[in-house]
UniProtKB/TrEMBL annotation:
GO MF annotations in UniProt: ATP binding
Signal peptide: none
Protein name in UniProt: Archaeal ATPase, fused to C-terminal DUF234 domain
Residues annotated as domain ATPase: 3-41
Length: 41
């Protein structure tokens, strides 16, 4: 799946994933908008 205009969000999630600190992240939105695919990316 290709994301359009999501560079900021993808960059944020990659930064959080690289950090060694434990953090709680909530991703919410309407159904079928690509939340799970965004996390998989």
């Amino acid at each position: 799946m290709k994301f359009i205009n999501r560079e900021r969000e993808i960059g944020f999630l990659k930064k959080i994933h690289r950090d060694k600190q434990s953090q709680f992240i909530v991703i919410y939105g309407k159904r079928r908008v690509g939340k799970t695919e965004l996390v998989k990316q």
